[in-house]
Amino acid sequence: MKNSVSVKMFEEAGKYIPGGVNSPVRAFKSVGLNPVFIKSGQGALIKDVDGNEYIDYVGSWGPLLLGHLHPEVVEAVKECLEVGTSFGAPTERETILAQMIVEAVPSVEMVRLVSSGTEAAMSAARLARAYTGRNKIVKFEGCYHGHADMFLIKAGSGALTHGVPTSPGVPEVTAGNTINAGFNDLAGLERIFSTAGEEIAAVFVEPVPGNMGVVPPKPGFLQGLRELTSRYGSLLIFDEVITGFRLSYGGAQSLFGVRPDLTCMGKIIGGGLPVGAYGGKKEIMSLISPDGPVYQAGTLSGNPLAVSAGIATLKVLGRKDFYVELERKSARLARGLAGAAGEAGREMFFTRVGSMMCGFFTGTEVVDYETACTANTGKYASFFRRMLEQGIYLAPSQFEAAFVAQAHTDEMIDRTVEAAVKSFKALEE
Ligand code: KE4
Question: Do 285 and 343 belong together in one domain?
Fold first, then answer.
């Protein structure tokens, strides 16, 4: 596989940008390769600067549920470009997107648009602390809520991939207000609440974690979080930056029938442009400036261009049978990959919820951070390299998700499965 141009570009990038990338997970470090520099995308395909073409299961890490350059998204952005890109003043488009989110997501009565999932999560944490008058935040090991200090304690995603789940630079006093719990361990959380419940402002959870690989919640776990937080007067905050509008039009909360107090969103609601959001009960959101005293702001918050892409994306998602077809394709891929591993006699643990899935290179049932870490990351890296050589672009880390998009065709999925059969068989022992 030719990669000389990517290699040259990576060297050049490294002169000006730390690690040559603007986000660590892109560096391909854990899969031992020079990252490919992407030249273009179209539908479910991407092309790198050496002319290699790939079927894309990263989808910009989740935003591109429709695939690259969906015509309606392109049209909406072009239409906005006719009138401007950013004004730092209210525009009707922001109200339209906000209304679509409020009408789609069961627990969200009001929503504030920001520019990233990180901003959404850090703002929701500040709001929860102000609303409850408490300081402590509970998160789950292996979950990732963006890179605000308070969340970089045993975090997932790139923090886990690069082996530094607790980042230097986070003051002790900050870390002291973050309590880590075990995902799917309700009894453990009960114990935490029995000692610190009165100090806990909020429990943050990815309802279906996608940052330690994909780890489905055990039956009753999310409902248990709802009951426990209500009992102690703490807020339940769903981080639906990945699951929002992916697992259903109402997100994971709609799929599982659990209503959090606040919800963080991002990725899909921007349709590939920078949009984040946090929202919830009016009673809580009304504390946000300028209505209330809790400050949060952003030069490009609700940016018209980005919001236009988000509106166009949600319009497509809201159409009849969108999720039915997405589920059919996702199940086809998952079935095929499991069959491929079986045919090669590979010991794997596969997980899937809707169009987000993961194959762990372990024989252990993966239910949390600890069991996710039993995965053989060396085997994952070898599998990744072989798939890349065959034109299949997976997440360059065992601790991420593979995403199916509307643009994936049955033919692409079958081609992916064929490549997986060869890759599983060729893995070094
Ligand atoms: P951003 O700040 O990257 O927009 O969102 C942070 C975030 C918050 N919550 C969840 C559940 C997330 O998954 C993320 C970001 N996800 C990672 C990959 N899993 C983004 C990729 C990257 O860091 O480059």
Answer: no
Q: How many domains does the chain have?
A: 2
Number of H helices and number of E strands within the chain? 15, 14
Type of residue numbered 324: V
Task: Tell me what the mean pLDDT of segment 118-130 comes to.
Answer: 98
Q: Which atom of ligand 1 is nearest to the CA of 143?
A: 11
Which of these is catalytic: 48, 56, 185, 239? 239
- Antiparallel, parallel or unpaired: β 38-42 and 45-48: antiparallel
Provide the 10 A C-beta neighbour count for residue 264.
30
To test the ligand 1 pocket, which listed residue (114, 206, 241, 268) has its Cβ within 8 A of the most ligand atoms? 241
Q: Considering 317, 349, 376, which residue would you say is the last residue of a domain?
A: 317
Q: What percent of the chain has pLDDT over 90?
A: 94
**Beta-bridge partner residues of 264:** 239, 278
Distance CA 363, CA 340 (A): 16
If asked whether residues 237 and 247 sit together in one domain, one would say yes
145 and 294: one domain?
Answer: yes
User: What mean pLDDT, rounded, does the chain reach?
Assistant: 97
pLDDT score of 292 more than 90: yes
pLDDT band at 48 (very low <50, low <70, confident <90, very high): very high
Indicate whether residue 41 lines ligand 1 (CB < 6 A).
no
Peptide bond into 290 cis (omega under 30): yes
Distance, in Å, from the CA atom of 371 to the CA atom of 349, rounded to the nearest integer, reads: 11
For the chain, state the CA radius of gyration: 21
CB of 144 closer than 6 angstroms to any ligand 1 atom:
yes
Q: Which of 267, 278, 329, 368 is catalytic?
A: 267
Residue 43 has pLDDT above 70, yes or no: yes
Residue 267 annotated in active site: yes
Q: Is the pLDDT of residue 156 over 90?
A: no
274 lines ligand 1 (CB under 6 A): no
